[in-house]
Write a structure and sequence with these properties.
single chain, 79% helix, two-stranded antiparallel ribbon, 7 helices
Length: 221
């Protein structure tokens, strides 16, 4: 009997040879595949960096809030500690606490919290872009590859599976890579967005604690 048909250099039933599929793909499809793989690598770099930074910053902010509540503001490099220092400078204890000073304090607090949020959300926009665009980019590569495959079939006038399958497999690989990039980006975008919101809670509570403390101090005078 005849030997088993090969698809992209791999024996049927033995799995696909993705390297051969990539090497035999159309140049446009190759560019799309490489771009999607690079986007996936960048996404994973952002995911790992953000996960570690948010975890570390959340712990630092929690310690700062606990220190403030125990009347010993713990020193940190940024985050809630810097927010507290700037708010203290905006509304010094020796100044009389009035409505103007209170509004200035709250305005500065809103600006600082917005700045913290922007800093901690940096990079997440890229994850969202990859999550939404990668499947369609991969699909474009697939459509392009299949068009070329049908053009080659028309030229060779041979519609056997041995001729059709490799070209279609090469084209579908672009969609697979698009999903490979998009799925982790979508999952971790949602997860990291929730972590950012959670990480801002200690800083928000610190602002409220400082506001309550200043109000009590003014009433005690």
């Amino acid at each position: 009997m005849g030997g088993a048909a090969t698809i992209g250099g791999g024996e049927a039933g033995g799995g696909l040879d993705f390297v051969s599929l990539f090497l035999h793909a159309d140049p446009v499809v190759k560019v799309i595949m490489v771009g999607l793989l690079l986007a996936s690598l960048i996404c994973w770099a952002i995911i790992l960096e953000k996960s570690f930074l948010l975890w570390r910053q959340s712990r630092s902010d929690a310690r700062t809030l606990a220190g403030f509540r125990s009347s010993a503001l713990l020193q940190g490099k940024k985050g809630a500690y810097v927010a507290a220092q700037r708010l203290e400078a905006e509304a010094p204890v020796h100044e009389r606490w009035n409505e103007t000073l209170r509004e200035r304090f709250l305005a500065r607090a809103r600006l600082l919290l917005a700045q913290l949020k922007r800093e901690r959300e940096s990079g997440l926009a890229f994850l969202a872009t990859v999550a939404s665009a990668a499947p369609f980019i991969g699909l474009f590569g697939t459509v392009w590859g299949i068009m070329n495959s049908f053009a080659a079939i028309a030229q060779s006038k041979n519609t056997s599976l041995d001729v059709v399958a490799p070209g279609i497999a090469e084209a579908l690989l672009a969609t697979a890579i698009g999903l490979f990039a998009a799925i982790p980006a979508a999952v971790f975008y949602n997860r990291l967005s929730m972590q950012v919101a959670k990480s801002l809670v200690p800083a928000e509570e610190l602002v409220q604690e400082m506001l309550i403390l200043r109000t009590r101090q003014e009433r005690a005078k």
